[in-house]
Amino acid sequence: MAPLVVASGLEKHFPVTRRLGEVLRGERPVSRAVDGIDLTIGEGETVGLLGESGCGKTTTGRLLLKLTRPTAGTIRFDGGDLADLAGAALKRFRREVQLVFQNPFDAINPRFTVFRALREPLQNAGVPKEEHPERMRVAMHRVRLPDVEGYYDRYPHQLSGGQLQRVVLARALVLEPRFIVADEPVSMLDVSVRAGILNVMRDVHATMGLTAVYISHDFALVRYVCARTVVMYLGKMVEDGPSAEVVARPLHPYTRALVQAVPVPRVDQSREPLPIKGSLSAAQAQVGGCRFRDRCPYAFARCADEEPPMREVAPGHRAACHLL
Ligand code: SF4
User: Fold this and answer.
1) Domain locations in the chain?
2) Does 198 sit in the ligand 1 pocket, CB within 6 Å?
3) Residue 317: enclosing H or E segment and its boundaries?
4) CA nearest 34: which of 17, 49, 19, 47?
5) Which residues pair with 11 in a beta bridge?
6) SS (HEC) of 173-184
7) Residues 207-262 pLDDT 10s
8) Which CATH entry fits the domain spanning 3-226: 3.40.50.960, 3.40.50.300, 3.30.1450.10, 3.55.40.20?
9) Torsion angle, CA of 99/8/258/280, rounded to 10 degrees?
10) Does residue 323 line the site of ligand 1, with CB under 6 A?
11) Can you give the pTM of this predicted structure?
12) 290 in ligand 1 pocket by Cβ < 6 Å?
């Protein structure tokens, strides 16, 4: 499939509060939220970005949508460098990409009816008024919401969390985007309504051929919706492969720990859970070598000295570990 999004050497650093010693030495410490991501996403591909809170997946998603500027590296969308986009080209890009928010109650203005929530992006993008009803009808149909007059008059407080998240999704789809990033799209919803939303997402990909990145800490969600899974740890990609392969045969010790932490069908449950230790926040102080080494049960001397590169172990399945 032709590449739609190509990120190369992507980095995003944030300044952190300096301690007294660092101020005196004139040091400016940074948090490396994203630290060297190379990621190519094909047209129509669904990619799950997976990892614990603080691993850099949300920042990566925002970089891909040009919602924040990279510290280093480039992102190309449909062949064009995002850094060069301005004027009409930037406006077109904003129409072609959409972000689906985590919390549907924050995503929609509480004073907006469903009609107004769907009309706003069309107006902002300059879509002719006569096209609005048909575009809204199609978007409502795609997320399986009733396309009836009374429904368009409802306010967010008159909808359930699941219905509101469908409206959020319809609002993202009403401009017929080519690429969406969905950040923990069902994490705020009741477990009982999650399956319905996930089915809608799968249908949307099947019917629209949409390219998408799903950001989540939930392996089951990513496997259900995404054909490909990318696992991140402390700003780095540590594994990348077909979702079914990554779940059935995880290569990286961190991925294995994630897989064994959730009840996913067809995972080899005979293996003992890895004795993964410590927390992500404690691990952030590490510099150089493999970032997972303090938590890895297999760490050896080389892991502290040398950063493991991504290696292809099976077709389309890569991971970064010296043991591979
Ligand atoms: Fe563990 Fe070393 Fe592999 Fe890192 S490189 S995951 S520390 S064995």
Assistant:
1) 3-226
2) no
3) strand 317-319
4) 49
5) 35, 72
6) HCCCCCEEEEEC
7) 888 999 999 988 888 888 899 999 999 999 999 999 999 999 999 999 999 888 77
8) 3.40.50.300
9) -90
10) yes
11) 0.89
12) yes
